[in-house]
Amino acid sequence: MSSRIPRSLTVAAAALALVAAGAIAAPSPASAHWSCGRAAPPDIDTTGGHHTEVVVNLRVGSSLRCLDVGDVSPSESLDYHCYALDINGLDTWTYVVSVQTKAGGWIRDDGLNDNGSRKWCPNQTQV
């Protein structure tokens, strides 16, 4: 009987040791986004008093690449659900629902009066 350890087990053990030592990190928020067309994220942000500074587009995902499904005006009150990054991991986006029209979608945070939600959306698409 051989006492050799299979190479696959050696590689797996080495990778586990690197993760445990912090040399390899788990997926970070920078590697996640909300894909175009996915269902709305959960409503986990309970803050209020949100609105836009100017008319902005609602999109079906956290990216300018995603379809524009309407506009939101500064006179509309917004219910925040949570935020995600764009596919490049650069800009943050908040999922909002207009209190007046009930329309929901993603708005890039620089278009919101308070720079968007502070609650991270769970279960984002990993890049």
Descriptive keywords:
3-stranded antiparallel β-sheet; 127 residues; single chain; globular; signal; 26% strand; SH3 type barrels; SH3 domain-containing protein; alpha+beta; two-stranded antiparallel sheet
Topology of helices and strands:
Elements: H1 7-21, E1 32-33, E2 56-59, E3 68-72, E4 78-85, E5 92-98, E6 104-108, E7 125-126
Antiparallel strand pairs: 1-7, 2-3, 4-5, 5-6
Describe what this molecule looks like in 3D.
This protein is α+β, with helices and mostly antiparallel strands and 127 residues long. The chain has one domain: SH3 Domains (SH3 type barrels, Roll), CATH 2.30.30. The chain is built from one helix and seven strands. The protein has a three-stranded antiparallel beta sheet, with no helix packed on it. Strands 1-7 form a two-stranded antiparallel sheet. The protein has a two-stranded antiparallel ribbon with strand order 2-3. The protein is globular, with a radius of gyration of 20 Å.
